[in-house]
Amino acid sequence: MGEMLSLGNLADFLLLFVLQTVLTMGNVLGIGIEAGRAPLAQQSAVRFWGIGSAVILRIVVFLATLGILNGFGGAFVHLGWDGVITGGVGLSTLAFAVGGAMLILTAIKEIARLLSVEHLDNDLDDRGGRPGLMSLIGILGLNVVYAFEGTIAALALTTYQPVIFAAFLLPWIGVLILRDELTLFLSRRRMVEVGGLFILLAVGILALGMAGTASDPIAPISIFGMAVTPMSQAAFYTTVIVLIAVVYSQSSFARKLAAARKAAQK
Known about the structure:
The chain is α+β, with helices and mostly antiparallel strands. 73% of the residues lie in helices and 6% in strands.
């Protein structure tokens, strides 16, 4: 218990909790969209099983990924194209490279959606147009993707499993208990979610850096003579602090600008 409450683990937990909350909200949004495409009488059941499977898959995918990387994570090929790309490549390399790229793409896509879409109900034009089983299959695929992204985000920050499991489960408990209040809060404080997505973007970059030494720390991957190495923890947390400060400053400026324009129109 004392190790769980150490300053480093608490910092990792808070950051990972924010990231998992952002991923959870994106996951819930996807479940809602897919469930809305099922017949009206089946939507509640599809939504229930979709959320339940998402929680289970977070744990299953994490344990499966961790087991695979621990057992088969070593380099299985060494690249030797001098001056272009060299180093050891294994499953760990591929996992962090693919996972990091997925995190970056998810962050960019969700930021673009949040900044451009005012009414998310517009995404449900084909409500009730597909069988409930097909909607559930689509949700399961979506849940696997989000579970893998959550796993890579977690492993990029810490390997301490109590922190990871707590950060995995608490956002879903919050969704189940405070679903309506949380949705309303995010709709009114969109910059909160945008800030979380920018942090997710930074974690994606962190994961890409970890791919360089994940399979063979002695022979890290080098591209055009430049070694791909993990970002230091100090540099990462400095980046996160700067991102939070920038998002807060931009949000405050946007509110003042909107108030000034409203006053000028009177």
